Amino acid sequence: MRAVRVTGRTVEAGDLPEPLPGADELLIRVGYVGVCGTDRKLAQRGANPPRVPGHEVVGLLDDGTAVGVHPDVGCGRCAACAAGYDNRCADRVTVGLSRDGGLAELVAAPAGHVVPLGGVEVANGPLLEPLACCLHAVGRLGVVAGDDVLVVGAGPMGVLCMWALQAGGSRVTVVQRSAARRALAERLGADAVLGPEDALNHAPAAAIVTAPGEEPLDYALRAVATGGRVHAFAGTPGGACLDANTVHYRHLTLVGSTGSTLADYRKAVELAGAGAIDLDRMPRTIVSLDGAARGLAEPTSDVFKLIATPGSETE
Ligand SMILES: [Zn+2]
Ligand SMILES: [Zn+2]
């Protein structure tokens, strides 16, 4: 089968043996697979043994059922799993990271993490995994309907966080430095958009920071209302130092999360399937597996959300 593989620090599309599903695993014919920063980090870090990336994958089972894969599989036995943090289990296996993923014609995945897409179109399926991560984060933030919430950063994750918050009844202001991205956030439904230098009308109850680095986090800690809540959504390579006194004197709650649980993924399917979140609106660039290999090897900033499809003739 055709697949994209990271070997050392080389990313290439080529021919690989078809995966053999183990006991309690299913073989999926890949329809679409999203490429995100996690895949780019894997490509930059390199993989030894070689790895097929792709954790935002959907496709068809043998019987034609459209399914998506929730990629983070906990051991189900440890304290983290028992506490509902199976995405933080020390022994977790992640499809597309610690086992081969979906940038291929076929992918094998644990049956318990293969979820029927229900009312979600297969073409929108790759957005379910990142949406699940956003729903997980929103759950950690403890916002209620009617809350004003700031989303810092208007990349694909910022947009999905915005939609996840709005589906829960929040009013979302997106803060973003680039004017083009601000305009995009507005087109995609932001209740308000701002540059980081612009004054806020009033302090929001909470913020989700989807842009990496100290500056966006620091901005959010200062922008939320006294007693507000801030979610550190973006990881920052090299770390991000914060002034704990800001949290202390402003009575803030700082939370974080990465990844999602199976329950979050099912909720993403439910919300998107019911039309509460319209994934059709997400701008995307569809490429072939060869195009995805090139996109991983040489990322360009003009692509908003990269999605690969093994069936595509598009380069
Ligand atoms: Zn991802
Ligand atoms: Zn575990």
Give the tags.
315 residues; alpha/beta; Quinone Oxidoreductase, Chain A, domain 1; Rossmann fold; 2 domains; six-stranded parallel sheet; binds zinc ion
Q: What secondary-structure arrangement, pairings included, does this model have?
A:
Blueprint: E1 2-8, E2 10-15, E3 25-35, H1 37-45, E4 47-51, E5 56-60, E6 66-69, E7 72-73, H2 79-82, E8 93-94, E9 106-110, E10 114-116, H3 128-141, E11 148-152, H4 156-167, E12 171-175, H5 179-187, E13 192-194, E14 206-209, H6 214-223, E15 229-232, H7 244-249, E16 253-256, H8 262-273, E17 285-287, H9 289-297, E18 306-308
Parallel strand pairs: 11-12, 11-14, 12-13, 14-15, 15-16, 17-18
Antiparallel strand pairs: 1-2, 1-4, 3-5, 3-9, 3-18, 5-6, 6-10, 7-8
Helix pairs in contact: 3-4, 3-8
The structure holds zinc ion (2 copies).
The site of one zinc ion (ZN) has 8 residues, from α2.
Structural class: alpha/beta
Count of DSSP H/I helices: 9
Anisotropy-based shape = globular
The poorly predicted ranges are none
Radius of gyration based on Cα positions: 19 Å
The separation of the N and C termini measures 18 Å
Number of strands: 18
